[in-house]
Design a protein that fits this description.
This protein has helices spanning 55-70, 107-114, 156-161, 167-190, 229-235, 245-253, 269-287, 299-314, and strands at 14-19, 23-28, 32-37, 42-43, 46-47, 78-83, 86-90, 93-105, 119-120, 123-124, 133-140, 143-144, 152-153, 193-205, 208-212, 221-225, 241-243. With 316 residues, the protein is of the alpha+beta class.
């Protein structure tokens, strides 16, 4: 199956392009951003060598739906989704912080907790917790955004003290983060899922804090199936989940965690297709819609045409 792992567009008014781990972001006239969700996949801050069919479409369409579904509680950057793999929106000055919110003790937080950590990003963690246990209240554990390599855990107090974000803007981001997580959790519950943890990014435009990037996708979030959660938790069994964690676990099982000297294991066609199937499964569960696969032929050409048509409309 065809994948889009690299882009090299040249749109009218294009000022620059930023190639992220998964998304390629084109700056148009220093005012509009064209964000292309590619089929690249990353784990442990490393872009893996094989693309995942339809992954970009899944991420883009889930994010677009959630941006629309939360626009009444938090302003966001989205203007249009002219292509299944593209969102066009307002350019904002991004804060160099990711707002991670956790409803349950799992993933990297559990790995640190199991190793004896009882404070995460300035937040005290109760003793005696078990893997996948729900926190009394969701906790916010921000990270600083790194240009390259690993993002770093940081506390609210350090963020403000270092001038990364001022106190007022951070309070707004914190309020928005909790409101988004509540709405996302409600929407997940309606589909028989638990929104376990996720991250949000914010920027500023015209003096206003605005939600940017993607939200509630399997790349930025972790979901458990609600059915069977309690029984599995009581027995200490792994939860059935829809997230990228299974890719991380597969890498860990093959002795790769992004550390120096480690080699990415071979990604067989069977494994790649299984990852694609998991992304599509999450799309259908979280949206309640049948996934409609976009045409595979000349993906880049299709995107170029759709974006050009959209930019022409915005310019009028």
């Amino acid at each position: 199956m065809a994948t889009l792992t690299k882009t090299d567009f040249n749109f009218p008014g294009q000022q620059s392009v930023y190639h992220g781990k998964v998304r390629d972001v084109y700056d148009i006239n220093d005012d509009i951003l064209v964000m292309v969700a590619t089929d690249r996949i990353s784990a442990f801050d490393v872009v893996l060598p094989e693309g995942i069919p339809y992954k970009g479409q899944v991420l883009n369409q889930i994010a677009a739906q959630f941006l629309d579904a939360t626009a009444d509680i938090v302003p966001n950057w989205k203007i249009a989704t002219p292509d299944p793999m593209v969102t066009v929106g307002l350019k904002c000055e991004g804060f160099r912080v990711e707002m991670i919110i956790r409803g349950y003790l799992t993933g990297s937080a559990w790995r640190e907790y199991k190793a004896g950590c009882r404070e995460l990003c300035g937040v005290r963690l109760p003793d005696g917790m078990r893997e996948n246990e729900r926190f009394p209240e969701p906790i916010i554990t921000p990270t600083t955004k790194a240009d390259a390599g690993h993002d770093e855990n940081i506390s609210k107090e350090e963020i403000i003290a270092q001038g990364i974000v001022d106190a007022h803007d951070y309070e707004v981001m914190e309020q928005y983060t909790r409101a988004l997580f509540r709405r996302g959790s409600e929407m997940a519950a309606d589909k028989g899922l638990i929104l376990v943890d996720t991250k949000y990014e914010f920027g500023k435009r015209d003096g206003k804090v605005i939600l940017i990037d993607e939200i509630h996708t399997p790349d930025s979030s972790r979901y458990f199936y609600a059915d069977g959660y309690e029984e599995r938790f009581e027995k200490g069994e792994p939860q059935r989940q829809l997230s990228k964690e299974f890719v991380r676990q597969w890498l860990i099982d093959h002795d790769f965690m992004g550390k120096a000297g480690q080699k990415v294991p071979e990604m067989t066609p069977e494994f790649v297709n299984s990852v694609s199937d998991r992304y599509i499964e999450l799309y259908e569960h979280i949206t309640g819609r049948k996934f409609e696969k976009a045409p595979e032929t000349d993906i880049a050409g299709r995107i170029a045409k759709n974006v050009l048509d959209c930019l022409a409309t915005i310019g009028k």
